[in-house]
Structures are given as C-alpha cells and as structure tokens.
Write a structure and sequence with these properties.
Blueprint lengths: L2 E6 L9 E9 L5 E6 L3 E8 L1 E7 L5 E7 L3 E4 L4 E6 L6 E8 L3 H7 L8 E2 L4 H16 L5 H18 L10 H17 L6 H8 L3 H12 L3 H19 L4 H7 L5 H12 L3 H8 L4
Antiparallel strand pairs: 1-2, 2-9, 3-8, 4-7, 4-9, 5-6, 5-8, 7-10
Helix pairs in contact: 2-3, 4-5, 4-6, 7-10
C-alpha cells in the first residue's frame, strides 16, 4: 500500500539553516522519482526495505548506489538524481529538505559529498535519535516554525555525530576557527560599510587565501555571503516591520536606496516594495 505524508515548511526567515519540506513514504514496488535536480539539500533515511540511487558525482558522471535500511542518502543542490524502490522489497523512507548559509559545512562534517552521498552510521543510538527527529517533524507538522527549526538542528546534530565520516575533517580545525570568526564578524557588522579585506584582517589572513577557504567551507564567496545575509535581513524587516524602504536600506548597510533595491531584486526577483506587498505580516 502506498502511504505518503508530506509537509512544506511555512517560513523563510531562518538564514543560517532553513527547513523547506519534510515527509515520509512507504513506496510501492519499483516506485521512482527523477531524473530531477533539487534547489536545496535533501536527505533521505531508509527505515526499511531497499532501493537504488543514481546520482551525478562532482565530475558529472552518473554513479549507482544500492541503499538499504539503516542507511541514507544526501541529494545536493543542482545535482541530477533518480531513485527507485526495489521491486521485491520496496523502501520506506523519511526525508528532510534544508538549506542555509551553514548547510554546506554541516553536510561536509557528516562526511557527505557528491562523491560520497551514502550515509552510514557508527552509532546505533545516535542513528535512531536522528531518525526519531525526522519522524517527529513529520508527525508534528502543525507545530510552530521555531519548534520545527529546533528539531531540524537536533536532526543535523545527530546526523553529524552518528555518521562514519564525522571525524574526517579533524585536520581543518584551524580553518573552521577562521570561518567562525569571519561569520561572527559579518553577522555583527553587516549594517556597516565593511569589505572582504576587513573580514580577512579580523582573521589575520590575506584576502586571497581567506576567500579560498571561506568558499570551500561555506559554498559562497565572502561577497556572496554578505550580500545574501544583508538581503535576508532586509526581507525580514520588510515582512515584520513598518520601516520605510529607505530606512531598511540603511539598516542593512546601503546608503544608496537605488543600489539596495537593485541588489534585493537580484536575489529575490522583485523589488523590495513588491516583495513586501506579497509577504508582509499584518501587525
């Protein structure tokens, strides 16, 4: 019997880590999805049964993986994938789709990449805790956004700690320290006229090297991160406050309202005023 539970997350106000949709499904024999590409990170955990994942690796070559119960697989943004339930023992899985400015580093900390997308757990108890968090979200989909985001964080913590790849990046602790310092500085100074050189100087690094390790860790250049962060903060102010467009422009570091409007439109596909009209919460 085909059984599907599916929910779309109602809020887009979480910048560091956002939840997009989640659900669980008892698939019919040979049920398939794809080929398709996703916009965000999508993790499936197989509760029972087995199936096949076909996914492009980092070089664009299609690889085939057999995935069974107590394993999982990560689909990456823009990656072409197809997955098919077994004809004799179709899988039942639960999934979570998420993204955000810290998503890439978290996924890598779990040892999951486009070349190694299959989740294997070292710890049975942590693996079960992870699965229970995923199931909790599907069973409590009417809960508040903050409640669900809290369980997204717990799911990701259990995923990282349970994964066989968790210890892969121990040698990069110094790099992680620099990235933490850079993120902290930008998040507390985004409203000021700061440059990439300023951020690199806080870390004690030259601009070129800093830009390289930042993009490796975050998946965006420092400029792209700062722009995304400023525009996400602007969208939050547009949605939740009565501030004028000019005041919001100043609040996120733009003295020139026209420059702010152009930057906002490049990210959201519409002007700040139009976005506010579509998304504003009535106070």
């Amino acid at each position: 019997m085909h059984n599907l539970i599916f929910s779309v997350f109602p809020s887009e106000n979480f910048v560091d880590l956002g939840l997009y949709q989640f659900g669980c499904e008892q698939c019919e024999p040979a049920h398939s999805f794809g080929p398709a590409a996703r916009n965000h990170y999508l993790f499936h955990y197989v509760i029972s049964g087995t199936g096949t994942l076909m996914a492009d690796d980092s070089k664009g070559n299609t690889k085939t993986y057999s995935v069974k119960s107590m394993q999982g697989f990560m689909i990456f943004p823009g990656q072409i994938t197809t997955y098919i339930a077994d004809k004799e023992l179709p899988w039942e899985y639960v999934w979570v789709e998420f993204d955000g400015l810290r998503a890439k580093s978290i996924v890598e900390s779990a040892g999951l990449t486009m070349d190694t997308p299959i989740y294997h757990a070292q710890s049975k108890s942590l693996r079960e805790d992870m699965m229970n968090e995923m199931l909790y979200m599907t069973q409590n989909r009417e809960s508040s956004p903050f409640h669900l985001i809290g369980h997204l964080y717990l799911f990701l913590d259990y995923m990282m700690r349970s994964s066989a790849g968790t210890n892969i990046q121990k040698g990069s602790q110094l790099r992680d320290f620099y990235i933490h310092e850079a993120l902290n500085f930008m998040e507390h100074n985004f409203q000021n006229d700061i440059s990439v050189e300023d951020v690199a100087a806080v870390c004690g690094l030259n601009r070129s090297y800093f830009g390289k390790i930042f993009k490796q860790a975050v998946g965006k250049s420092p400029q792209e991160f700062l722009l995304s962060y400023r525009m996400a903060k602007a969208a939050e102010l547009l949605k939740l406050t009565q501030l004028s467009i000019g005041d919001i422009s100043q609040a996120v570091g733009y003295d020139n309202q026209l420059h702010f409007s152009r930057a906002f439109k490049n990210i959201y596909g519409m002007s700040p005023r139009e976005w506010r009209n579509r998304n504003r919460i009535q106070l």
